[in-house]
Amino acid sequence: MKKILLYCLPLCLLFASCSDLLDEESYSETGKDNYLNNAKEAETVLQGVYKNLANEYTYSYHLSLLFTISTDIAQCEGSSTTSFREIPTNSHNASTSQISRTWQKLYSAIYDANDFIETVSGRMDNWGSSDRELATIYLGEARALRALFYFELVRWYGNVVLMTSTADSRRKDETFEQTAAKDVYAYIEEDLKYAAEVLPWAVDDTRRTTNAYRFSKGAALGLLAKVYCTWAGYPVRDESKWAEAEKAARRVVESGKHRLISDYETVWKNTCNGIWDAGESLIEVSFYSPTGLDSDNTAGRIGKWNGVSATTVEGERGRNAANWKVTYNFTREWEAQNDPRMALSIADYKYDHTLGSGPITYFSTISGATPSEEQKNRQRQLFTPGKWDTEKYVEAANYIVNNDKSNVNWYILRYSDVLLLFAEALNESGGSVVDAVDAVNAVRRRGFGDTKHDLSYGLSREDLREVIRKERAYELCFEGHRKQDLIRWGIYYDRVMETAQELADWYSNANYAVSRYIIKGRHELLPIPQRDLDMMPKCKQNPGWGQ
Questions:
Q1: What residues does 360 pair with on adjacent strands?
Q2: Which helix (H) or strand (E) holds 351?
C-alpha cells in the first residue's frame, strides 16, 4: 500500500486562488493566521501545494492523458470530434472547457505556492534552527512546484500572465498583461536553481520524515534540464540554452545519485503499485485513495483511460476504456528493432472477462482460419499502450472499484529522460559526441539487456539527432512527452502530416483524425481561454486563434 501524505491536509487550510479572473470561485484562507507556526505545520500545508499535481485538470487526466495524445505514435479512439475527442483531434477552440479548466487550475496552484512561500518566508526567522533548516527545504520544494506549474503553463499556452506574488493575483482584470515566454522561462530557471541548491539528493536526505514523491536536488536539476531544452526550441529558440541544459543534466548524471532500474518492466510494476524508487523516478505523481474517491476526485485515470482494454469484472475492477490507440506506423517501425521494450509498451491484446481471465490477442478474435490482411489491419488500429496494464501489474491492494479512476501513478520525469536530454543537449550544443552516445547507450542497454545494440561513436551530429529523437519515442512512448518534443523540435505539424501519409500508404481505411484539423502555426499552442481573454483587454490571443 502506498505511503502518501497528499490527502492529510484539512481542506480549510488549502490555499487557493483569490482572483476572480483566474477561477470561477473565490476562496477564503480560513485558519491560516493561526497556523504555520513551525516546520511541522508548514509541511502539512506544503502537502496541499503538492496535491495540485493529483487534480483532474493537471496530471490525473488533462496534462498526462488528454492534452498529450495525438502525435506520430498515438491518437485517440474513434474518428469523430465529439466528447473527449475535441482536443486530441485538434478540433478544439478557445471556449473548450477543458482548456479553461487547466489554465485556471495551474494558476490556482501557482497561487498556493506563492502563498506558502510568502507565509513561510515571513515567519521562519522566528522558528528554532532545526525548523528553519526544514523550512528552507520546504521553500525549495514549493519553488520547484511553482516552476513546474509555470513550465506547464508556458509550454502549453505560450503567452501567459506572470504572477510572482499573491498580490499579483488580486489585481484588477484590466491591468493584466502577458509576459514574454523568455521571461517566464527565466523566472522558472530562478526557482529551479534555488531549489537545486537547497534541496538534498533523495538518497542523502536525512532531514525530511519522508521524501517519497517529493522534489529532491536531482528532480530540480532534471526538470531544469528539460526546461532548458524546451527554451532552446520552438517557439523561443534560444539556442544558448542547450549548453545550460547539458550542465544541469550533467550534474544529475555524474552525481552517482540516480540510476536506471535494471529491469524495464519493473518501472511499470512500480508505478502501478505505488512503489517509490528514487533512483529512476525523479518526479512522480502519487494517487491513492484507500476506500474510494476523496472530495477532490484526486484519484487518477492512469491505466483506466489510456490502458489496455478490459471488460468490467463486477466487485473487482472497473472496465478500462482504452481511449489511447497506438498508430500502426510506429508499431511497424519498432517491430524491426527487435526491442524487448516494445512488447511491454504496446499491447496487441485485450481482456474480455466473459471469455476468461487472461489476455486475448486481437487477431484471435478474427473468425476464420486465415484472416485477410484487411481484417488484420482493422485490428492493428486497436493496439493500446501496455505500460499501465492494470490486469497484469496492479496488485489487489492498490486499485479502487471504479470504471474511470485508479491508483496507478504517473511519471513526470524519469532518469532515462534526463539521460536522453543530456545526450540531446550535448549534441545540439556541440559538446562531446562520446558522452552523448554513452548516455543513449545506457538507456539502450537497459532496454535491450545487452551491449549488442549500442550506438557507434562515429555517428554524425545529424544522424545522432535523429537517433536520439527515435530513442525518446521508444523509451518514453505514451508518457506524455512526445507531443511537446515534436513541438519544441518545430516539427509537430510536419510529423502529423507525414504520419497521415504513412498510415494511408499502409491501409487506405486507416483512422487518424488529427490530420484533418491540424493547422501549422496554430496547434503548437493551446488558445488562451476565451473567458479569461474577454476580461483582460491588454492580452492577445495566441497565433492562429484570432484576435
A1: 350
A2: strand 349-351
CA 26 to chain centre: 28
Q: For 359-398, how does the pLDDT look when each residue is reduced to its tens digit (9 = 90+)? A: 998 888 887 778 899 999 999 999 999 999 999 999 877 7
Q: Is the peptide bond before 543 cis (omega within 30 degrees of 0)?
A: no
Whether this model's pTM surpasses 0.85 = yes
Q: With the C-alpha atoms ordered 405, 146, 234, 522, is the resulting torsion angle positive or negative?
A: positive
Nearest Cα to Cα of residue 529 among 105, 69, 111, 60? 105
Look at residue 484 and tell me whether its pLDDT is greater than 60. Answer: yes
Contacts of 274 (CB under 8 A, 6+ apart): 1, 2, 3, 4, 286, 288, 398, 407, 409
Question: How far is 436 from 425, CA to CA, in rounded Å?
Answer: 8
Q: 507 is written with which cell numbers?
A: 491501409
219 or 12, greater pLDDT? 219
The CA–CA distances, whole Å, from 290 to 4, 348, 398 equal 11, 32, 8
How would DSSP label each residue in 36-98? --SHHHHHHHHHHHHHGGGSTTTTTTIIIIITT--SSSEEESSSS--GGGGTTTT---TT-HH
Asked if pLDDT for residue 291 goes beyond 60, the answer is no
